Structure formats: structure tokens, C-alpha cells
Amino acid sequence: MASLEAVCRAMVPAVRAAGAALDRDPATVAGLARLPAADLLRCVATPPAYRGGCRPPDGLVLSGTSCLEWTVALEGIAYGDPAVALACPGPSLPGAAVTGLGDEDQREWFFSRLTGAQWTFFAMTEPAKGSAMTELGTRLENGRLYGEKCHVMNGARASAGVVFCRRAPGPWGIEAVLVDGAGPHAEQEHTLGLRGTGLSRIRFDGVAIPPDRVLGRHLPPLRRGFAGALRALQRCRPPVAGIALGVAEAACDYVREHRPALPSSAGLAELTGRIAAVRRLVHEAAAALDRGKGNPRRISAGKARACSLADEATRRAAELLGPASLAEYPWLERMRRDMRGFEFLEGAGDIHRLSVFQGLLTGEFLPTP
Ligand SMILES: Cc1cc2nc3c(=O)[nH]c(=O)nc-3n(C[C@H](O)[C@H](O)[C@H](O)COP(=O)(O)OP(=O)(O)OC[C@H]3O[C@@H](n4cnc5c(N)ncnc54)[C@H](O)[C@@H]3O)c2cc1C
């Protein structure tokens, strides 16, 4: 995997410049499609059969379905800028749901829409309900979709999306459906951090959903519904952890660059060691998912620990760079704003910590030999 890391590292200067511009003016998001990083992220999340003219840079061989490759790539791009990693056009998180749950026609339908600067969205969270899947209020009734979603990344600008909804009461009544963009009732929300990701509120007012747009229609309800949605969400968590680790590592290197003479008592080496340990946990969780043996407890541990480290590393950087550091170092100020989002993206930290705790009680946390 070293070459994927090296390719990402070479992209950092361009990604960092794009990230600063995106924070100043989120309308510059349209220009992200021209970045080599956007091509890389598209290829890493698209199976080769659906890539069209898009080729991985520098002759990299990417499966397009590997959670580990996606995690490594997102960490590398997020080292440059996390908002760019999340705001680039392409299949992104919904692509993982389509690859994991969709049949061949559905994959074709989804990926054929993404030939250039097209965004996608993944809509789970609802106003007043949050992202608790069992409380979903969005309904699929007589082939039409009704309901409201919020905090949906890239929602208002997307050409295709995956929407979680309810066809019937109970966990097996949950479905994920494919939609042609957000439709007319989408508006962007105001956020302090990750400004370029265009979090959106979307209302579905009877949008027609033909039967072939019910994701995983070839699977029995027991394997799509709640279980299928959970599987799709779990594949997104190591990549989000990767983004948090990229920011944590970048914060440590940023301090080294601006304070090269810091004594070892500053604790940067110790922090970098802990980042490496969590990276191992996250990579192991992603590789297990690739083998079809994902352990939800360890996925949660990696996601929660990576997000705590992004918080700790950016806070430590601000302390080490001095009392006015957030005013003096705009990159660091932006990272302090952006990293707050990781805590909530793909499940709040408390929920993941509860999952780890339950895994420890039941013996599911330790990897099976
Ligand atoms: C940058 C960003 C991007 C996002 N992108 C998307 C997207 O593309 N699509 C999408 O659908 N959603 C998206 N979201 C929404 C996100 O997934 C949810 O906000 C997140 O899952 C948290 O869920 P919630 O809002 O329901 O919080 P809640 O579950 O209401 O949690 C609120 C607080 O209460 C705590 N809490 C809740 N229940 C318990 C409990 N039982 N025990 C202890 N503590 C508890 C939580 O830890 C948290 O601190 C995004 C959010 C952010 C910040």
C-alpha cells in the first residue's frame, strides 16, 4: 500500500491550496473536479468496469471495492485537507452502499451518472430524529418517497443519491432507494467547519421510486433492510477514521515544521505513536471488512479513537504554537473547526464507545483468531 500513500502525499500541496480556497468560498467546490486527488478518490471507490475514462494516477492498481484502499486514500488526501477529501465529486460514501447492496443494473445506473464533476449523497439523518436507523420517518409509500433529511453532504448539488427510508414498520421494513439527485426541495445548511462539504436539508415530496431503484432488490428483506443498511454504514466508518487520522498526523507535522526545535517533552513523538497504533486498528478493521469478516465493535473503536486523536492533536498543536496560534496559523484554525464534524459524521463518539463497551462485555471485541 506504500505507493498509494506516496501518490497521495505528492498531492498534498494542491489539496491544501484547494482546501483553503474552499473554506474562504465554498463555491470553488466546482473546481475540485480538476484535482488529480478527485480522480484518485473516484477510482478508489469505483469498480474498474464502471470507471469510464477515469484512470488511477501513476499506474496504481485499485480494486475500486476495497475499504482498506479507500481508507488509505482518504487519510492521504485529508492530510492535505479533510473538506476536500469529503467534497470532491464522485461516488464517495453512497458508492460504498451501491457497491455493497446493489445488483448489476443498479451499479450501472449509479456509476454511469458519474462521468465528470457529479456529486452523490447518502441521506440517513432526519430533523428531530437524527441518524437512529430504527426511528426513520421517511416513507416509501406506493412507489413514492415522502420525508425530510438533514446534514446530507453534497446533497443540494448531487446528481444521484441513496436515501434510507421505511416501507413498513420494524427493522425489516427499512429500505435504501436510489434517487436522481435531491430534487427541487433542497437547500444548503450553514456550517462553521467543513464548509465545502455543502451539508444540505432535503425534502422528498412524493418522488417516484420505480421498483428497480430499491437497492438490493435481489436480496431477501433480511439481508437488505436494517442489516444491509448497517453493513453499508460500517464500510464508511474506517474511511472516516482515516480522514481523522490524516488530520491528526498533519497537525503533528505542522508543529514540527513551525517549531523545529521543540523538546521531546512536548510529547509529539508519543502522540505520533498513538496515531500509528490507531491506524493499525483502523486498517485491520478495514481489511477484515474486505474479507467479509467485519467486526462492528472494532470498527467503532477505530472510528471513535481516530476522531479523539484529531481533536487532541489539533488542540495540542494550538497549545504548542502559542497563545495566539489560531489567529497566526489559519490552517490550524480551520482544522480546529473542521475536526468537530468527524465526531458526528458516521455516528457520534458516544454511540461508538457504547458499542465497544458492549463488545467487551460480550467478548465480541477481541478479534477472532
Ligand atoms: C460533517 C458532517 C457530515 C454529515 N454527513 C451526513 C450525510 O452525508 N448523510 C447523513 O445522513 N448524515 C450526515 N451527517 C449527520 C450525522 O451522521 C449525524 O449527525 C450523526 O450520526 C449523529 O447523529 P444524531 O444527529 O442523531 O445525534 P444524536 O444521536 O442525537 O446524538 C446527539 C448526542 O447525544 C449523544 N447520544 C445519543 N444517544 C446516546 C446514548 N444512547 N447514550 C449516550 N449518548 C448518546 C451522542 O453521542 C451525541 O453526542 C453528517 C454530520 C456531520 C457533522
Your description of this structure?
- The protein is of the alpha+beta class and 369 residues long.
- The chain is 50% helix and 12% strand.
- The two termini are 24 Å apart.
- Strands 2-3-7-6 form a four-stranded antiparallel beta sheet, with no helix packed on it. It has a three-stranded mixed beta sheet with strand order 1-4-5, with helices on one face.
- It is built from twelve helices and seven strands.
- Helix 9 (296-320) runs antiparallel to helix 11.
- It has helices at 2-24, 36-44, 67-80, 82-87, 92-101, 104-111, 225-258, 268-290, 296-320, 325-328, 330-344, 349-362, and strands at residues 119-123, 139-141, 144-152, 158-166, 174-179, 186-188, 200-208.
- It is globular.
- It has three domains: 2-88, no CATH class; 119-213, Butyryl-CoA Dehydrogenase, subunit A, domain 2; 230-362, Butyryl-CoA Dehydrogenase, subunit A, domain 3 (Up-down Bundle).
- Strand 4 (158-166) and strand 5 form a beta hairpin.
- The longest helix has 34 residues, at 225-258.
- Bound molecules: flavin-adenine dinucleotide.
Radius of gyration: 20 Å
- On the 0 to 100 scale, the average pLDDT is 93
Domain unit count: 3
Q: How does the major sheet shape up?
A: 4 strands, antiparallel
Low-confidence stretches: none
Helical element count? 12
What is the CATH topology descriptor of the largest domain? Butyryl-CoA Dehydrogenase, subunit A, domain 3
Q: What molecules are bound to this protein? A: flavin-adenine dinucleotide
* Secondary structure: helix percent: 40-55%
Global shape: globular
Order of H and E elements: HHHHHHEEEEEEEHHHHHH
Structural class label? alpha+beta
User: What portion of the residues fall into strands of 2 or more residues?
Assistant: 5-15%
Q: Can you say what the CATH homologous superfamily of the largest domain is?
A: Butyryl-CoA Dehydrogenase, subunit A, domain 3
Strands, count: 7
Which strand order do you get reading across the main beta sheet? 2-3-7-6
Tell me which CATH architecture of the largest domain applies here.
Up-down Bundle
CATH class of the largest domain: Mainly Alpha
Compute the separation of the termini in Å.
Answer: 24 Å
